[in-house]
Design brief:
Helix content is 19%, strand content 39%. It is of the alpha+beta class. 42% of the residues are buried.
């Protein structure tokens, strides 16, 4: 928190200048600043980062621009005795995406003793164009925390400059080995190049109180290792933390090529997913099962690869999405068509301006319509991370209970508010409970799906639940799927089915939505139509619905609408069926006339009204043929549907609007289903 009063303030411009107190002075050379800045010194509490190695008070320096072009001299008064090498510690506030807090990450700059003062140099920003991309989220103007540190040693390895307390001299070689091992994994296994920006400098590693990394990374590539972890020899934990931090820097290296106007949420969920998966890559735990934050977010893939991250740059949302999408990263890296090096290649493409999801898809040597459903199947089958047996079943909130022989049709339509649309690259779960015991061996369950145009780009995956275990039954892509002989499944104690409809549709930026319907039918042996007493009607068309709102505004809503009756109870008198229903405040009447051969509906009239007067639907039609493969069903599909509709009306009101059907049309999405069954 910024103190209320500065110890010293000076306006410093391109000509340079000095701001100082008795304990600290900041000397800015001529030409370092491009414009005037108010540079101020504040006293702040020591955060304990360097413990007993700290030999000065702590100060906050505000007003330094993050693109100064010449080195700044810092002079600090120290107390006590100096030993070994001494440094000026300069810390920046950064965001820790693990804890969700801001924290200070330090770098050490060698300092020399001059009559009770340590004098050090704060180097110029190495690349002004990049430094402007440093986050300003945590304060404006840019500021640093400084203090003087002594009794530290310095070790240079091939890729790291390591500063550590002299008391940890024994541990230095172990730290170096862990860091170089993690570096090798990031370069050789994951395929990050570090050529564009990071390759120009070594990574600076400071052993201090807490482990922190410079998550923004564009300026100084600073990593901090916990002093206590080093003392306790927790090198496995250090390797994990440093490995994740190096992935951060590798990603930053890719971002250094592209515009600073990138959409953060479009990128960061993927970073989080990769870093979450990478716990497996760097851990030495032989009993590792899955990343720590994965299980609470394991449903993320179903929400849409991109849509699940949200669109409002909500860090909590895209972090949680990334935690769950680590399952997809594991699937990809375990597949030789992508592999671990696919991660580095993906970020090379992102660095060239390619959309992140497009870059990921392009580096998988398979069609997304093949691997996305296979990922969902593999994931649910427990082949990626093992989840509890009932995990996915518990999340299947869309449900159909088959309680008797008349439960023969269920349509899960996107127009139903409980189902809704399908985001690009997503999936939905459906639970089917087979509660009826008396289906015979000829009875089967048929699943069909219909997308915005056809079933292309859609897949169905079906699991059965047997004795508490989830059993994979089959997958169908762009076609129907049938489960034969329901009697055998019931008798073998498989009385629940978990159905997954997978949407592979979408294009960059993968924020589209598709209306997709899942139709489930029970096929039974033939039975005389005239003996059936139960009837349900479903009509789907492309509609134009005119809406008038209470505030005087109005519009026309164009969408696919499924008009669905409840089950009517009635009977045939000759070839004429009359049935009614009255349930939950809705009344309906269905009158149907069949031809003499009972294989075509000559006419149908369905009326539906709400008892409170809030709406009504009516449908009259003709010439609807008997289905060739579904007992008791008459149906028409596609553009021919409109030819069978004599009239279709729909109107009503809510607390905020009135609405009515203005017009309708038919295409490949359209259908008419009329199903007869026997009431028990």
């Amino acid at each position: 928190e910024k103190p209320t009063e500065a110890l010293a303030v000076a306006e410093i411009g391109p000509g340079g200048g000095t701001v100082k107190t008795n304990d600290v002075s900041i000397v800015v050379p001529s030409g370092a600043f491009n414009e005037k800045h108010n540079v101020a010194i504040y006293s702040v509490a020591d955060d304990g980062a360097f413990g007993e190695n700290t030999v000065s008070s702590s100060f906050k320096i505000s007003g330094l621009p993050n693109d100064y072009t010449k080195a700044i001299k810092i002079k600090m008064k120290y107390t006590g005795e100096l030993s070994g090498q001494s440094f000026i510690a300069a810390g920046d506030k950064v965001f820790d995406d693990v804890s969700g807090d801001t924290t200070t990450v330090y770098n050490l700059f060698q300092a020399s003793d001059s009559s009770g003062y340590l004098i050090g140099i704060l180097p110029a920003s190495v690349d002004a164009s990049l430094s402007k991309r440093e986050s300003t989220e945590f304060g404006d103007p840019f500021y640093k925390i400084i203090n003087a540190v002594t009794a530290y040693n310095w070790l240079q390895t091939e890729n790291f400059s390591i500063s550590y307390p002299r008391t940890l001299e024994f541990n230095a070689s172990f730290i170096a080995a862990v860091l170089e091992d993690a570096y090798s994994i990031v370069i050789n296994d994951l395929g990050f190049s570090f050529n564009n920006y990071l390759g120009k400098w070594n990574v600076t590693v400071v052993v201090q109180k807490e482990a922190v990394n410079d998550d923004f990374g564009f300026l100084s590539h600073k990593l901090n290792i916990s002093r206590d972890m080093v003392r306790l020899g927790k090198y496995s934990e250090i390797k994990l933390a440093m490995g994740i931090s190096l992935i951060n820097l590798g990603i930053d290296d890719s971002y250094s090529q592209i515009s600073s106007n990138m959409e953060g949420d479009n990128y960061y969920w993927l970073e989080v997913a990769i870093k979450t998966w990478a716990e497996e890559l760097f851990t030495d735990d032989p009993n590792f099962q899955y990343p720590a934050k994965f299980t609470a977010n394991a449903m993320a893939p179903f929400n849409g690869m991109r849509a699940g991250a949200g669109t409002d740059y909500d860090r909590d949302i895209f972090n949680k999405h990334g935690y769950g999408m680590s399952s997809m990263i594991k699937y990809l890296v375990d597949d030789t068509r992508y592999g671990k090096t696919g991660i580095g290649k993906t970020y090379q493409d992102i660095g060239k301006g390619v959309d992140p999801i497009a870059a990921l898809i392009n580096n998988m040597d398979a069609m997304v319509t093949d691997w996305w459903p296979d990922f969902i199947k593999t994931y649910m089958n427990g082949e990626i991370y093992h989840l509890p047996n009932d995990y996915f079943l518990d999340y299947a909130k869309l449900e159909w209970n088959i309680n008797d022989e008349n439960d023969i049709l269920k349509i899960f339509a996107s127009s139903d508010p409980a189902v809704k649309f399908y985001p690009d690259l997503s999936a939905k779960l459906f639970k089917i409970n087979l509660n009826y015991a008396n289906f015979d061996a000829s009875s089967s369950m048929l699943f069909s799906m219909k997308g915005p145009v056809t079933e292309d780009g859609l897949s169905l995956i079906v699991f059965g639940i047997q004795n508490g275990e989830q059993v994979y039954l089959g997958t169908a892509s762009a076609q129907d799927l049938e489960i034969p002989n329901l009697k055998e499944y019931y008798d073998n104690n498989m009385r629940q089915f978990l159905v997954v409809l997978v949407n592979c549709l979408g294009g960059s930026p993968f924020l589209g939505e598709s209306d997709i319907d899942l139709t489930i039918k029970i096929n039974k042996k033939d039975e005389s139509i005239l003996s059936l007493t139960k009837c349900i009607v479903s009509v789907k068309t492309l509609t134009v619905i005119h809406r008038e709102f209470n505030d005087g505004s109005q519009d026309d809503l164009i969408k696919y609408t499924t008009f669905l009756s409840d089950y009517a109870l009635g009977s045939f008198n000759g070839n004429v069926y009359t049935g009614t229903y009255d349930i939950y405040g809705v009344q309906g009447t269905i009158i149907i006339t069949l031809n003499d051969a009972q294989n075509e509906i000559l006419s149908i009239n369905w009326q539906k009204t709400y008892n409170d007067g809030s709406g009504e639907t009516s449908f009259t039609g003709m010439n609807i043929p008997l289905s060739s493969n579904i007992s008791g069903e008459f149906s028409l599909l596609g553009s021919t549907v409109c030819g069978a509709i004599s009239a279709l009306t729909y109107s009503g009101q809510t607390s905020s609007e009135t609405f009515n059907l203005q017009s309708f049309s038919c295409d490949e999405e359209s259908h008419i289903y009329v199903n007869f069954s026997k009431d028990q």
